[in-house]
């Protein structure tokens, strides 16, 4: 079953001498279908700059020699990749489970690394493409769409213009609130008619697909600083 984002519902227990977070496993998070359902709950307590590689990069930008076209070519080469009947089994999920970022997001969100194996993978797909193309420092990496978007915003890389290679965040309700984000992908181009062409993971029937989306569903765009 295709699912678009992880929506947090952690239970927090504060102890007397410091706070210990007892978060529920990701399996308890609500899941929504990429094309047919809207989000079930708002995100709670998300920190966009969690983890050493996901903190604000203001004042210390890392230049990469990767172009938007290279990133899009790699993303396009994944078209047709499909999840299994349990909503997992993709190389994007397997990579994330074993990544250092998984340990950081488990600490932030609760659950365990293995929970990502069958979890929403649209943001994991974007993160994998960033990693494999050598543009991770510009694309970011996260399993949670809202946190991924907030990272771009915190680093002054957020806007409303569709640019090739930009990371596009969607809300099926049409909301412009980052906490309402349902889904994420890459912009291929602005079609100039109120739609954009995209490449997305975990869409349709749980596949990587090329899509055409109305801009009315776009919350905003994250802008990696690609090489010219």
From TrEMBL:
Swiss-Prot/TrEMBL keywords: Signal
Endpoints of the signal sequence: 1-30
Region: Disordered, residue numbers: 39-63
Gene3D superfamilies, A to Z: endopeptidase domain like (from Nostoc punctiforme)
Keyword Signal in record: yes
InterPro entries: CHAP_dom
Domain Peptidase C51: 97-225
Pfam families referenced in this protein's UniProt entry, alphabetically: CHAP
Protein name: CHAP domain-containing protein
């Amino acid at each position: 079953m295709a699912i678009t984002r992880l929506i947090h519902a952690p239970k927090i227990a504060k102890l007397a001498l410091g706070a210990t977070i007892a978060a529920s496993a990701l399996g308890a998070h609500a899941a929504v279908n990429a094309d047919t359902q809207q989000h079930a709950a708002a995100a709670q307590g998300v920190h966009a700059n969690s983890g050493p590689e996901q903190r604000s990069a203001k004042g210390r930008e890392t230049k990469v020699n990767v172009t938007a076209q290279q990133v899009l070519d790699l993303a396009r080469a994944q078209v047709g990749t499909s999840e299994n009947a349990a909503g997992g089994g993709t190389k994007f999920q397997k990579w994330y489970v074993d990544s250092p970022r998984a340990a950081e997001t488990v600490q932030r969100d609760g659950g365990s690394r293995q929970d990502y194996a069958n979890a929403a993978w649209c943001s994991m797909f974007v993160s994998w493409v960033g990693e494999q193309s050598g543009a991770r420092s510009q694309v970011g990496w996260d399993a949670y769409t809202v946190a991924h978007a907030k990272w771009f915003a915190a680093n002054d890389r957020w806007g409303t213009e569709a640019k090739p290679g930009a990371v596009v965040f969607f809300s099926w309700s049409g909301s412009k609130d980052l906490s309402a984000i349902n889904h994420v992908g890459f912009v291929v181009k602005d079609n100039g008619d109120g739609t954009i062409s995209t490449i997305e993971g975990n869409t349709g029937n749980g596949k990587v697909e090329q899509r055409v989306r109305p801009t009315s569903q776009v919350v905003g765009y994250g802008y990696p600083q690609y090489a010219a």
